[in-house]
């Protein structure tokens, strides 16, 4: 692959997703040497969203997964906390997670650089987990599995005593929909108009007191996955694995239910999915009446966060597939929610 010319951060950000990927791919080809892997390891893209994730196939060895972190989202200390929790979950619970693999220098987090990408990146190599995502044809079973798995993660998080203080983002209201949002401003959602902004502003104003009334006491607020939906679990021979802890951080435990419903909020079977999740979850870990009563508000909170994410990732295939219609459907959800709760 020819070496591309050097580029500034602003120039890189302005590139289309395929052109960015051609440059990031050159970072990926530098990674095997950091881990003592053969230089002829086959490297293929798995996903490009917040990070670039690659399947690495060293000759004659099991496959591995390489994650190249995007700059500016997580500092090294945050990634170290993520990996510490992942390792603890695999050690302490029945839930399987991808084990991080140390580089030749003994460090789990490696620093990788190439002149065609404007800044160095952190990267992590992990074991490859066999399995498949739960089948969409049986979403009730998938939501029951999600509820059970989420409860196990929450039980662990509530009692875990890590060797060092966990450093991760706080997914509180301001971090989602406030003035300094982690995923961009919801006001920049695709197809947003002044009328839609006014309508959704009413929703945001109504959501804040309902969400924050849950409080941040230890039984209700702690370390969560924050994106534990069907796309991020794998099932293999009866064992469940959880992947993609990149968004894990401190938030309300009930928010993980809202995250499980991502992109399904308008589906007519949402009440049944919620019941399946709750029934399985509460077999392992109880929830308070206040948390259960606030579920609708948390679903809208997550939906508004997704409006922001789509707007700030407009060039990605997923955002393009959602389009302005996602914002329009959110306005309808907001209207229904406001009519019931105000």
Your description of this structure?
The chain has 342 residues and is of the alpha+beta class. It has two domains: 9-127, Phosphorylase Kinase, domain 1; 136-341, Aminoglycoside 3'-phosphotransferase, Chain: A, domain 2 (Alpha-Beta Complex), CATH 3.90.1200.10. Helix content is 44%, strand content 14%. The protein is built from twelve helices and eleven strands. It has helices spanning 9-14, 17-28, 31-34, 76-92, 139-159, 173-177, 194-212, 255-260, 270-282, 289-293, 295-312, 317-341; strands at 42-48, 52-57, 64-68, 96-97, 100-101, 109-112, 121-127, 221-224, 233-236, 239-242, 249-252. Strands 1, 2, 3, 5, 6 and 7 form a six-stranded antiparallel beta sheet that branches. Helix 5 (139-159) packs across helix 9, helix 7 (194-212) packs across helix 11 (295-312) and helix 11 (295-312) runs antiparallel to helix 12. The longest helix has 25 residues, at 317-341.
Query: What count of helical segments does DSSP give?
Result: 12
Oligomer state equals: single chain
Strand content: 5-15%
Helix content: 40-55%
Name the poorly predicted regions.
none
Which fold name fills CATH's third level, the topology of the largest domain?
Aminoglycoside 3'-phosphotransferase, Chain: A, domain 2
Radius of gyration: 20 Å
CATH architecture of the largest domain: Alpha-Beta Complex
The averaged pLDDT comes out at: 94
Task: Give the class-level CATH name of the largest domain.
Answer: Alpha Beta
**Strand-and-helix sequence, N→C?**
HHHEEEHEEEEHHHEEEEHHHHH
Strands, count: 11
Question: From the helix content, strand content and strand pairing, which structural class follows?
Answer: alpha+beta
Distance between the termini: 59 Å
Q: What's the overall geometry? A: globular
CATH superfamily heading of the largest domain:
Aminoglycoside phosphotransferase (APH), C-terminal lobe
Sketch the major β-sheet: 6 strands, antiparallel
Q: Total domains, how many? A: 2
């Amino acid at each position: 692959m020819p070496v591309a010319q050097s580029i500034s951060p602003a120039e890189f950000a302005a590139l289309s997703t395929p052109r960015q990927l051609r440059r990031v791919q050159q970072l990926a080809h530098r990674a095997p040497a950091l881990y003592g892997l053969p230089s002829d390891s086959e490297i293929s893209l798995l996903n490009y969203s917040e990070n670039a994730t690659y399947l690495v196939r060293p000759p004659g060895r099991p496959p591995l997964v390489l994650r190249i972190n995007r700059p500016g989202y997580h500092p090294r200390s945050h990634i170290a906390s993520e990996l510490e929790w992942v390792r603890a979950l695999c050690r302490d619970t029945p839930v399987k997670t991808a084990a991080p693999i140390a580089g030749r220098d003994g460090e789990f987090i490696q620093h990788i650089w190439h002149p065609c990408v404007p800044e160095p990146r952190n990267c992590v190599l992990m074991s490859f987990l066999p399995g498949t995502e739960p089948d969409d044809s049986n979403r009730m079973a998938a939501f029951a599995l999600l509820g059970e798995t989420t409860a196990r993660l929450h039980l662990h998080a509530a009692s875990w005593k890590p060797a060092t203080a966990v450093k991760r983002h706080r997914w509180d209201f301001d971090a989602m929909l406030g003035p300094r949002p982690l995923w961009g401003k919801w006001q920049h959602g695709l197809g947003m108009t002044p009328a839609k902004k006014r309508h959704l502003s009413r929703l945001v104003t109504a959501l804040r007191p309902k969400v924050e009334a849950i409080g941040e006491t230890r039984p209700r607020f702690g370390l969560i996955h924050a994106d534990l939906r069907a796309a991020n679990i794998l099932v293999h021979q009866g064992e469940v694995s959880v992947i993609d802890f990149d968004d894990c951080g401190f938030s309300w435990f009930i928010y993980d239910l809202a995250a499980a419903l991502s992109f399904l909020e308008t589906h007519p079977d949402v009440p049944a999915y919620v019941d399946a999740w709750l029934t399985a979850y509460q077999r392992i870990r109880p929830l308070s009446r206040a948390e259960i009563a606030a579920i609708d508000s948390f679903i809208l909170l997550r939906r508004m966060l997704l409006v922001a994410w789509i707007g700030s990732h407009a060039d990605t295939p997923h955002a393009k597939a959602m389009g302005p219609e996602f914002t329009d459907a959110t306005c309808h959800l907001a209207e229904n929610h406001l009519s019931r709760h105000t």
